[in-house]
TrEMBL record:
Stretches with biased composition (Low complexity): 37-48, 61-93
Species in which this protein is naturally found: Catellatospora methionotrophica
Spans traversing the lipid bilayer: 150-171, 177-195, 207-224, 230-249, 256-275, 295-314, 335-359, 379-402, 423-442, 454-480, 492-513
Biased composition (Pro residues): 7-27
Lineage per the UniProt record: Bacteria, Bacillati, Actinomycetota, Actinomycetes, Micromonosporales
UniProt-listed Pfam families: DUF4153
InterPro entries: DUF4153
Name this protein carries in UniProt: DUF4173 domain-containing protein
Stretches the record annotates as Disordered: 1-103
Keywords: Membrane, Transmembrane, Transmembrane helix
Length: 634
């Protein structure tokens, strides 16, 4: 067999045979493909200088070869399918075919076996275009409201405990009462004490504005001391929360005022980990903190013991329970659960307000003017179309302003009630949407030169004036409807809201002269709070009852029974049996739910004194007689 056969390749140190003309050799069999694992093993063996142990039998049978060409045991570099371990020091996207001599270099490089066993990964060409996504930007809380950089220590826990105990002891959640005002004053005092250690407003004017928000919040809570209208007091409590939140968080622009009004409700939840972190730190340093920690812990234990043993004593002795009932809420399992729940809620509200006043959110990013601008065409076409549409509607409405009921029915083919009710709801929605449009245009419209400013003032001014006419049309419709069919709480409230929106348009007209007014958002919120205070002072349920008593034949008489103690003086003027029937629900509620000291209310106290002097019929008899008389009038 020839020395150049496939099984015996020529050695590198031997001379190549002379080139002679000969017929083309037969097709060589391809070299056997070696797997990466076998190649790595061979490379490791070649890199090891220690020769393998050879037995005598093997030495006798093995042919004599020189030691120098030991590297020839590796596969030839140009052998088809040969695999070369990648160099870990060189980053290559994909394996490439090795060049001649690469096998020897690889064999002497002593590559680690772990690197040689993992070939580089290859990806489709299309995947190379996609780069890794950048990390998401930090949210508002991480960027602008991280909260205090210290945990809620003993002072925060004491303030939260005081607010929680005041809530558990004095808050009449189911009805308006003086307890709401007392709890508000306690929380205001705790937050005011903590505010001395927080950042101060930049200017003296801003400090007085914060004080004004706090006074407005307390005034809204005070409405429950004098009025019993639950539907009105719900809005007063929500307004008090918003005003109190603005007192500790601040805000000037529309977006900043919205975030500021929601700061304390959001801090309600954020204060939980803040207090928990302070409790852990407090526990670790309690032995070194002196007597403060022991005093607070003793107060908590004392409160728990008094509640538990007081409930047991009250359940064991009726006289003791009566004595406690005169100064405290009813002591039983339900009252204990209520006390724990109210303590938790009141404490977290107080802690949330302290959390906010110590580290208020940074609203500077919300105060900046918008960077995006829309051009004249984008402003002129939509606003011009709205002005034309509003103008056409106002022209039609002017005919109805001077028409009577018969003219309205003849022109619209609707009854008077259908005309009034159908129009008011749509006009109320139109008014609110118009405010949104004006706000968006004022923020994004270009004001770079005098032409842009003149165009904006002209279109917005026309839209505001026409909107005020539409507000007047809606209020007029509701006024006609109530004068014809009677007054209700819903009609009075939504009519008042429509009047308030008309006042907002007046503020927009004032602010539109300079096309920028930082006072407008706060003035709008304060105006709505003023509306609630005005309704509370006007005693709306008494006004409704008084108006309906004068024309009780024209209304649904049964509606009068749903009015509260605020309406008692007016309902007492009704003739019998209407008076006894109209007062029946009020008498039942006052007898079933007597006031305690924390739920005292001026309207309920006056109604109780009045009803003690009025002779009434049995409710069932009075209502049957009233129904019979109403049927006879139809």
């Amino acid at each position: 067999m020839s020395d150049t056969s496939p099984d015996n390749p020529p050695q590198p140190d031997e001379p190549s045979p002379p080139a002679v003309e000969s017929p083309p050799p037969a097709k060589k069999a391809p070299a056997r493909k070696r797997t990466p694992a076998k190649a790595a093993k061979a490379a490791a063996e070649q890199a090891d200088p220690t020769p393998p142990a050879v037995t005598d039998d093997d030495a006798a049978d093995a042919p004599a070869v020189d030691a120098a060409p030991a590297v020839d045991a590796a596969p030839a570099a140009d052998a088809p399918g040969a695999w070369t371990a990648p160099d870990p020091a060189v980053s290559v996207p994909a394996p490439v075919p090795p060049t001649p001599g690469a096998a020897a270099t690889t064999a002497t490089a002593a590559v680690p076996a772990a690197s040689a066993t993992v070939p580089p990964q290859t990806y489709p060409a299309d995947m190379a275009r996609f780069s890794p996504l950048p990390p998401p930007p930090p949210g508002f809380l991480q960027a602008r409201w991280q909260g205090p950089d210290y945990a809620g220590g003993p002072a925060a826990w004491v303030a939260a405990l005081i607010g929680g105990l005041a809530t558990a002891i004095a808050l009449p959640l189911s009805r308006p009462g003086i307890g709401w005002l007392l709890v508000g004053l306690v929380m205001t005092g705790a937050v005011w004490h903590a505010a001395r250690f927080g950042p101060k407003p930049d200017t003296k004017v801003e400090r007085w504005v914060r004080v004004g928000w706090a006074v407005l919040a307390v005034a809204l809570l005070a409405v429950g001391t004098f009025r019993d209208a639950g539907w009105l007091y719900v809005f007063c409590v929500l307004g008090a929360i918003a005003c109190g939140s603005l007192a500790v968080a601040g805000g000037h622009s529309v977006r900043a005022v919205v975030v500021g009004a929601l700061a304390v409700p959001l801090a309600f939840f954020r204060s939980i980990p803040w207090l928990a972190k302070g409790a852990r730190a407090w526990q670790q340093t309690r032995e070194k903190s002196g007597t403060t920690g022991r005093i607070v812990l003793s107060l908590v234990v004392t409160f728990v013991l008094l509640v538990v043993f007081g409930a047991l004593f009250a359940s064991a002795d009726a006289a003791f329970a009566t004595m406690l009932g005169d100064i405290l809420p009813e002591i039983n399992a339900r009252a204990v659960f209520r006390g724990v729940l109210y303590t938790l809620i009141g404490g977290l509200i107080t802690a949330g307000a302290i959390f906010t006043v110590l580290a208020p959110p940074d609203l500077s990013g919300l105060e900046r003017p918008a960077t995006r601008r829309i051009g004249r065409i984008e402003v002129a076409l939509p606003l011009g179309g709205l002005v034309l549409l509003f103008g056409a509607f106002v022209v039609v409405q002017l005919r109805f302003f001077f028409g009577d009921t018969a003219y309205i029915q003849k022109a619209t083919k609707l009854t008077f009630s259908e005309y009034a009710v159908q129009g008011f709801g749509q006009l109320l929605v139109v008014t609110m949407l118009t405010l949104v449009v004006i706000g968006l245009v004022s923020r994004w419209a270009s004001k770079e030169n005098s032409r842009d400013r003149v165009l904006l003032r002209t279109l917005l001014g026309a839209l505001v004036l026409l909107s005020m006419v539409i507000v007047g049309s809606a209020v007029w419709r509701m006024w006609l409807y109530q004068n014809t069919y009677g007054w209700t709480r819903e009609r009075l409230f939504f009519g008042s809201v429509e009047l308030y929106l008309g006042g907002v348009f007046i503020l927009i007209a004032i602010a539109g002269w300079k096309l920028r007014a930082t006072w407008f958002p706060r003035a709008a919120v304060a105006g709505f709070a003023g509306l609630l205070l005005f309704l509370g002072a006007a005693n709306p349920e008494h006004f409704i009852a008084e108006q309906n008593v004068e024309r009780f034949q024209k209304i649904d008489f049964w509606y009068l029974r749903a009015l509260g103690p605020d309406a008692a003086p007016a309902l007492a003027k009704l003739p019998e049996p209407y008076r006894s029937c109209a007062l029946s629900w009020m008498i039942r509620d006052l007898n079933a739910n007597p006031d305690q000291w924390y739920s005292w209310n001026l309207s309920r106290a006056q109604a109780e004194n009045l009803l003690d002097k009025v002779q009434v019929m049995p409710a069932s008899k009075a209502c049957r007689e009233s129904e019979r008389l109403n049927d006879s009038r139809r």
